[in-house]
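Researcher: Let's continue the batch. This sequence belongs to Reverse transcriptase Ty1/copia-type domain-containing protein, and it's 213 residues. Same format as the previous ones, please.
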Amino acid sequence: MVECRRIKSCHLRQHTLHFTRLGSVVEDVQEDAVHTTAEVEDDISNSAKAAVLAAVDLTRTADPVAAIFPQSKYTEELLTRAGMAESKTTPTPMVVHIQYAVNRVSQSMHAPTEQNFRALKRILRYLKGSSRRGLLFRKGNLELSIYSDSEWANDKDDRCSTTGYLLFLGPNLISWCTKKQTWVSHSSTEAKYIAMAVGVAKAMWLHHITDAL
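Model: Same format as before. Here are the structure tokens for Reverse transcriptase Ty1/copia-type domain-containing protein:
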């Protein structure tokens, strides 16, 4: 079920955790799976300049006011540094969602095992096969919308829950996060409220920035 509450100009909605993060393996896997995309010009025809500055590609679509921003160049550089430029691809990163896979592997970075190393290699092979996928940006309104949810006690080692949110500016995804909560929630409701607070804090921060522009 979807719940909606209006917080100033932001919409808060509960939604299922179906996050796909493409190109999210950063130099140090210990970083949280948080990424904010570069701002896109109102006139999409001028976005090529922003794409060059952000070191990403720009792919035109059949829609003249839309473009796709993949991270193929960054992915190729990452694979080259890892010595896996010629590796085979795989359809999934370990489980269905790459953010979950990166999150799990990063938790063992201080004492990695052979199993962790195999999981990391699988993530890189997945990125190789999906490097041409990207975020679709279209013209639209400038309303901030936040979708947040949690998975209660999903870590079998310490029973901590996972927070996740997606933040949209109009129809465009601009920021997202999947992060392990720092303490054990006593109920699924408590875990959802924690996720809601994290998502709203991010949305309000961006709301204040856009208000100042």
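Researcher: Any comment?
Model: The beta strands are 4-7, 10-14, 33-36, 59-60, 66-70, 134-138, 144-151, 162-169, 172-180.
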